[in-house]
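The instructor's notes for this session suggest beginning with a concrete chain rather than abstract definitions. Hand out the sequence below and ask the class to guess, before any prediction is shown, which regions might be ordered.
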Amino acid sequence: MYRLYGKPFTMSMVPEGTLDEIGVPFETVTLPDGRSTDPAYLELRPDGLVPTLVDGDLVIYEGSAIAMHLADRHEEAGLAPSPGSRERAWWYQWMVWLGSVVHPTVANEYHADWYTTAPDGGDGVRQAARRNADDLWRQIDSSVAGRTWLVGERFSTADILLLVQATMHWDCHVMTAREKHVGAIVRRIQSRPAMAALLERHGVEPFAAA
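After discussion, reveal the predicted structure:
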């Protein structure tokens, strides 16, 4: 059985939602707030962050990477486009870009102390994070105009990642009301039973209809 280490309202929501959509049993281990200093966990993930998945003798971390691994392990769930297709290339693009560009921008807002050593630098980091996050979501909105799902014509792990990143925006409900195309996809994603349950477990208020 899979074992997923995570915390509420973090990137562990991405593999958690992926496992829910696949429909396989898994064990969850909820870690305390902050970077873990537990030696046993640091053997799995040296930076002490989440999420981490244990799959037999395989240990893999980072939310996007875990979700991609699970999609490949469970091809029958249809959570990734066919290998070699252009949709597959776009899937790689969104899984990497949302995790490596959008998420760190969000982290600037939540963890300003990670990005400055100045005693009074936190406010500036947070202000810049909010500005930069809004810029990124404007770009995303333009990119997803007219799409049913983020990649191709089928729901995929990229949609799970998009939903999680949208919830972490500093003013997510205002953002999805302003960015109409993002809002439409996000509401479509959250209408899936597994995604609605994921948001409820993590105390996220559903996105309202347009």
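Then share the key points. The chain has nine helices and four strands. The domain at 2-77 is CATH 3.40.30.10 (Glutaredoxin).
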